[in-house]
Amino acid sequence: xxxxxxxxxxxxxxxxxxxxxxxxxxxxxxxxxxxxxxxxxxxxxxxxxxxxxxxxxxxxxxxxxxxxxxxxxxxxxxxxxxxxxxxxxxxxxxxxxxxxxxxxxxxxxxxxxxxxxxxxxxxxxxxxxxxxxxxxxxxxxxxxxxxxxxxxxxxxxxxxxxxxxxxxxxxxxxxxxxxxxxxxxxxxxxxxxxxxxxxxxxxxxxxxxxxxxxxxxxxxxxxxxxxxxxxxxxxxxxxxxxxxxxxxxxxxxxxxxxxxxxxxxxxxxxxxxxxxxxxxxxxxxxxxxx
Length: 290
Known about the structure:
This protein is of the alpha/beta class. It has a single domain, classed as P-loop containing nucleotide triphosphate hydrolases (Rossmann fold, 3-Layer(aba) Sandwich). It has helices at about 5-15, 45-55, 75, 120-130, 150-160, 175-190, 220-225, 240-245, 260-280, and strands at about 30-35, 60-65, 85-90, 90-95, 95, 100-105, 140-145, 165-170, 195-200, 205, 210, 230-235. The model is unreliable at about 1-20 and about 280-290 (pLDDT under 50).
């Protein structure tokens, strides 16, 4: 690698020299939490929406920004796939479902229309979502990132004051390798890693009630320990979660005691605890029940 190339890579890895100024439309948002993954297919969007609903059900004011421009899924997961966003002047009004405000490119275009854009257009859209959506007063704005470590992630970090990041993985070695890259990316751009979530951790057989480790076992927890970041919990591979996503009726709408929802309420508790540990801004004290 030439000296010039080395300098460019080093500068990119150092990230912004200081935290970005708070955009006016985020001035009443207490915490901005990025939810990322090194690769697709690990259930990052499903984890995001159920975490958002769990927080909202316990009294927090929550929003979700769907930053996965090429594969938007939040409107469908929230049962609002046919709703379209409206604007007044240059300001977009967020949509709302289950007490969660949200914005997605899917809310601006026909439902089955593909987003065939080059990266600069996707980056510009994300900047507009941050600067021109009337988020209002929120305790937590969760940003559902696309997989990978590219333009959209860097734009977000340079545009919004991120409280911290959650990395979602499965127990498989392939997923864990990319999850480690995501952790390194957030560290290189000076974003606090709140922790790792292991999704699809295990399956409870509906016939014999035995645990089946479909994608191996414990990789998320081991990786978190190796990298010195907290482990935020396991989420099982649960057909009820899949049904909730397909129908737009999140399992987190159920009681915290419901076995299909319990993992997401535990994740909510652990996320709130981590935000408190970091000393970052936080919302009002809300009770996330066991």
